[in-house]
Each structure stands twice: as structure tokens, then as C-alpha cells.
Amino acid sequence: MNNLVWFRNDLRIQDNHSLKSACDQEGDVIAVYFFDPRFYNKSDFDLDINVTLPFGKTGKYRAQFIREAIADLKAGLEEHGIPLLVFNDRPENVIPRLVQEYDITDIYLQKEWTRDEVEQENALGKALSELENKPQGHRVYDQFLFHPDDVPFENWKQIPRVFTEFRKKCEKQSEVRDIVDIAGYKQDILKVEETEIPTLPELGLETFTKDTRSAFPWTGGEISAWERLDHYFWETEKLKFYKKTRNGLVGIDYSSKFSAWLSIGSISARQIYWEVKRFEKEIKKNQDTYLLIFELIWRDFFKYVSLKHHNDIFKIGGILHKDYEWKSSERELKKWINGETHEPFVNANMKELAATGWMSNRGRQNVASYWSMHKEQDWRIGAAYFEHILIDYDVHSNYGNWMYNSGVGNDPRNRTFNIQLQASRYDGDGKFQRLWLQEGLF
Ligand code: FAD
């Protein structure tokens, strides 16, 4: 009678409810992670358009970040005697065998609800149902700041369309849960098969060296997530100035840069929240410290939006079912991706993204507005490129923000950005544009 933890977007040891529940049970714990080819193959994103998208779902930057997170997780779990098996395969092809071989009676996993992840779970469920001793599944929501059982909405239909209403209700009526841990847990080392973390070429991706200009130079994993938090909160106290710097474009410290670790769960939103609270007690409490929590609530909001609207977040009309005319031009796509449009500010941001997998929030809003509002190009193509290239891709935040910026989502104002005005406001001295466009333009 043993327990299997299937790690998904919860690649951490601290504050991981699936891991904690498994460790609290009788029997040993084995962990598993899948580089599921469905997320790495070239894909048409099911968009029903004439354009062939020249990229797959997971690109090299995120894949590398995940590889690093898995290496870190494997080493961390070993300290508790827990082996992590890693496969470049689909869960349904492997888990039934693990169940038989390691006498697994219970499987613990983070609950996901978006299309690809549900398909993945369904395929596994089908494969497991053919076993004589089907293990019991335990699925938990572990990616939220405010747990779905604690928010003041009886069902997802009640999730407000406007963020402010959602935030105010949650702030008033919900509490962030405490952290859980497996600090004292230790089991005897189990003898299991040897597995390897697949290389980028094995995942169908090219290797690369990091661009020295990157505003996101870190590696993946729980250790680096906490190093980053320690730097931003405790060593430099940059959190005190977050509100004043968060619209920045150059350097590592204009914003927290937590998103990439959050998206694969190397740190939890709850952990960040409780560190902000400690900071407020020990160092300073101001609008800046509050704003970081405010942004984490935005992150939650988009998760609730996708719980409410399911696959509408991937549809052309978005959650508003808008019947707009959208274009889909391969030429425009190439120009946008390569940073060859007539807008230098868009170009600088797109070149940064292509070279590093990172773009600031200010940049993302502008290039999205350029693509879908100025050029009236199918917003889902832009979102698909972001899905491929972003190091911090998160299905809810990506599609939620794209809809928001494209007039088919939660923005009550339906704005279009004046890109030149934005460039002069946020890059008045041209430093950012020079960094990515090199000499010659200025
Ligand atoms: P900080 O400013 O330090 O904020 C702290 C945290 O709050 C972030 O790490 C993030 O988890 C959350 N947050 C901040 N802004 C937002 C927001 N607008 N929506 C949701 N959560 C937010 N974020 C992703 O994590 N993954 C995505 O795939 C993604 N795609 C985006 C696509 C578009 C078109 C736009 C406009 C925004 C997108 N964002 C996405 C949101 C936002 O740009 C990033 O979360 C942010 O820039 C990450 O930098 P940071 O961690 O330094 O953020």
C-alpha cells in the first residue's frame, strides 16, 4: 500500500497539499513528473484558421526552466527519502504500470480544469479503470491565494465580471490559509527504477545560451524562488518601492518577477502573501506592500474566470461572446514576432521576448493592444505565441489578460493603448528601446 504524488504545476515541497496528504498516509511515497509530449509537440492550437502557427505549445525557455525546477525538486524530495520518477511520456502510458509495480493505492495531484489538463486526466482515468485494483485519486486546488472553498461565492456563476467587485468581496470575507509542510518527514530510500530528465533536444527543442540583457536571468526551482524572494524582500527591501517601480522595463528589480515560479508552483501565492505580511510587521507596511497582494488577487481572479467560463477563454468571442471581425495574416504575425512593425516600442518588447522568454507587464499590454486592437488580428494567435514563448506562461493569466486587452474579456472600459504615448511615458529616455533595438535608431 503506497502513495503516488503526480506533480503538475505544483513543483514545490513546502506548502504542497498533495505531498503533505500523501506523507500523512500509511505506506511509502513515490513522486512522478511527466514531460507530456502533448505539451511539447508542434500544435495548431485548435484555432480553426488558415494560418499555420510556426511554433508549438511549450518553447525552449519555459522547458528549460521546468527542467531546472524538476532537478531541484528531485534533490529536495530525496532528502525526505522520496524518489521522483521523470518521464518523457504521457501519464496514461506509465502510471498504470507504476500502480502495479509499486503497489500504489492512492494518487495525489493538483486539480486543474483547463482543456488540455482535463484531457490528460481523462485519458489517465480511462487507463486506470482497466486495472483490477484501481487506485483512489485525490485532487486538490493548490494554486490559489484564496482557496475555492473559502471565497464568498456559492458557485462559479456568481464570480463577478469586474475585478474590483471580486477583490473587495474576497478581501472582506475570505482568509488566506496557513502554510503546510513536511519538514519532519523521512522514509527509507526506496529502490525504484532510474529515470532521466529529458534534454531540450529530446523534447524537440533547441538548446540556447541565456541572453545577458535578460530581465529574468534566474534558474527554475524552489530554491531559486526563495533566493529571489529573499533578495527582493529582505536583502534589498525593494518591496517598499514596488508601486513606484512596477511599470519599469529594464533590469531585474522593477517588479518581483515571481510569475515564472508561481506558474509552475515552485512557490505558492500563500507563501508570498505570508512573507508580505511578515515584511509589513518587521520592515514596513505601505501602499507598495499592499499592491503586491493586490496583484496576486488579479492572478486568482483569472483562475476564477476560467472556472466560471471554461473553454470560452480559448474562443474567439471570449467570455463576452463578441462577434468582432478578426484578421489572421501570416505576414503580420512574422513582423510582430520578429519585432519588425512600424512601432519601435512594440519591436523592442517583441525582441526582448524572443531573446529571453520575458516581457514586462507594461510591454505585454502594449504588444497585445498593438496586435489585437490596432491590427485587429485574431487575439488567440497572439495568445498562442505567448503560450509558446513566455517563461512564466500560465493558462489563466495569459488567456485572461489577452481577452482583457482585446475587448472580449473582463475590462469594463475596452481600452486601446496609444503606443507612442506609452513609449514616451515609460521609456522617455529610450533606454529600453536602445537595449533591444541596438544603435542606429536613436
Ligand atoms: P509583479 O508586478 O511583481 O506582480 C506579482 C505577481 O502578481 C505576479 O508574479 C503575478 O503572479 C501577479 N500578477 C501581476 N499582474 C498580473 C496580471 N495582470 N494578471 C494576473 N496576474 C498578475 N502573467 C503570468 O503569470 N503568466 C502569463 O502567461 C501572463 N500572460 C500575460 C499576457 C498579457 C497579454 C498580459 C497583459 C499580461 C500577462 N500576464 C501573465 C500578467 C503579468 O504581465 C505578469 O504576471 C507580470 O508581468 C509578471 O511579472 P512579475 O512577477 O514581476 O509581476
Shape-level CATH architecture of the largest domain: 3-Layer(aba) Sandwich
Whole-number mean pLDDT? 96
In the sheet with the most strands, the strands line up as 3-2-1-4-5
- Which cofactors or ions or other ligands sit in this model? flavin-adenine dinucleotide
Strand content: 5-15%
- The number of distinct structural domains comes to 3
Which structural class do the helices and strands define? alpha/beta
Integer-rounded radius of gyration: 22 Å
Q: Give me the CATH fold name of the largest domain.
A: Rossmann fold
Distance between the termini: 68 Å
Order of H and E elements: EHEHEHEHEHHHHHHHHHHHHH
Q: Number of helical segments?
A: 17
Could you give a short account of the major beta sheet? 5 strands, parallel
What is the overall shape?
globular
Helix content: 40-55%
Low-confidence stretches: none
Class of the largest domain in CATH?
Answer: Alpha Beta
Total number of β-strand segments? 5
The CATH H-level superfamily of the largest domain is HUPs
Please specify the SSE layout and strand pairing.
Blueprint: E1 2-7, H1 17-24, E2 29-34, H2 60-78, E3 84-87, H3 91-101, E4 104-110, H4 115-129, E5 136-140, H5 163-173, H6 222-235, H7 242-245, H8 259-263, H9 269-282, H10 287-309, H11 330-338, H12 344-356, H13 361-374, H14 379-389, H15 395-405, H16 419-426, H17 431-437
Parallel strand pairs: 1-2, 1-4, 2-3, 4-5
The chain binds flavin-adenine dinucleotide (FAD).
